[in-house]
Amino acid sequence: MPALLLERDRALVEQFLALAGQTRRERQITITHTKQTRIQLVQETVTTTTAPGHIPPAPLLPLLGRQAEVAELVNRLQTARLITLVGAPGIGKTRLALAVAHAALGQFADGAAFVSLAEATTLDDIPYVVLRQLDISPTPQQTAVAAIQSYLAPRHLLLVLDNCEHLLEGVTLFSDWLTHAPCLTLLCTSRTPLDLYGEQEWPLAPLPVPDLAQRPSPAWADTAAMQLAGAGASHRPHLRPERR
Ligand SMILES: Nc1ncnc2c1ncn2[C@@H]1O[C@H](COP(=O)(O)OP(=O)(O)OP(=O)(O)O)[C@@H](O)[C@H]1O
Ligand SMILES: [Mg+2]
User: Fold this and answer.
1) Is the N end or the C end of the chain the one with fewer CB atoms within 10 Å?
2) Ligand 1 centroid, distance to 148 Cα (angstroms)
């Protein structure tokens, strides 16, 4: 706008300046707001990632299928205290338990821990395997069993106990833990039921396979079972079909 004209109409100029100032202020307010939101977001992220709870190991490959099982088990863990995934060797019990533990992490203030009992060779080994995998250090006066109990007692924890069939006689220990730790939940995997009081058995069926009596269809490739078979072959060269 020409200066002369502006000089003639001071009121108009003042109005323009006021408007410009207002716009600048609004912009500043927006910038400050965005900055604060970002700071808030960063704080939230830091709070989530530095939570002191246990976190189960993360599998390298994605879970194929089993979405319905994960959802139902996560839901059931809100009330059940002892669930056992029961199924044949290799059917996917450990893989499912890990997926459920990750999905249910937010439900347990102390997180979800994973202990593989396959390492124990005798019944007496079990407490030491648990101590080591949960990173518990007993005090000089404590036995291994007592140290586990006093560690678990105050915790709101999901504990995955893998390969329980390995030493079935040892699982009575789990009942003691559940009695002494009112906020503890156990998710076990086993080839056979544990036969413990209060146990909820969850028989795991194989992933559904296409009807092999039908003509092969391209849709087969989308089924979780075929993808798992393909993934197995790609990691084990001896399973790959030969090229001619
Ligand atoms: N739904 C799935 N998605 C991806 N990988 C899977 C799935 N189910 C099983 N697997 C893979 O198949 C293999 C066998 O599964 P897993 O170890 O869970 O079986 P298991 O029932 O625990 O066997 P075991 O009784 O020997 O302990 C693993 O490599 C696992 O990662
Ligand atoms: Mg297993």
Assistant:
1) C
2) 28
pLDDT tens digits, one per residue of 43-96 = 333 333 344 699 999 999 999 999 999 999 999 999 999 999 999 999 999 999
Tokens at 131, concatenated: 């101590």
| Residue nearest atom 9 of ligand 1, based on CA coordinates | 92
Closest CA to 202 of 217, 189, 184: 189
Q: Which domains does the chain have, with CATH numbers?
A: 67-203 (3.40.50.300), 208-244 (no CATH)
Q: Residue 174: CA atoms inside 13 Å, Cβ hemisphere, count?
A: 27
State how far the Cα of 127 lies from the Cα of 240, in Å rounded to an integer: 42
- Beta-carbon contacts of residue 16 (< 8 Å; ≥ 6 apart): 1
What 3 state SS string does the chain have? Answer: CCHHHHHHCHHHHHHHHHHHHHHHHHHHHHHHHHHHHHHHHHHHHHHHHCCCCECCCCCCCCCCCCHHHHHHHHHHCCCCCEEEEECCCCCCHHHHHHHHHHHCHHHCCCEEEEEEHHHCCCCCHHHHHHHHHHCCCCCCCCCHHHHHHHHHCCCCEEEEEECHHHHHHHHHHHHHHHHHCCCEEEEEEECCCCCCCCCEEEECCCCCCCCCCCCCCHHHHHCHHHHHHHHHHHHCHHHCCCCC
Ligand 1 contacts CB of residue 52 (under 6 A): no
| Per-residue pLDDT reduced to its tens digit, 175-211 | 999 999 999 999 999 999 999 999 999 999 998 777 7
Of the listed ligands, the closest to the CA of 161 is 2
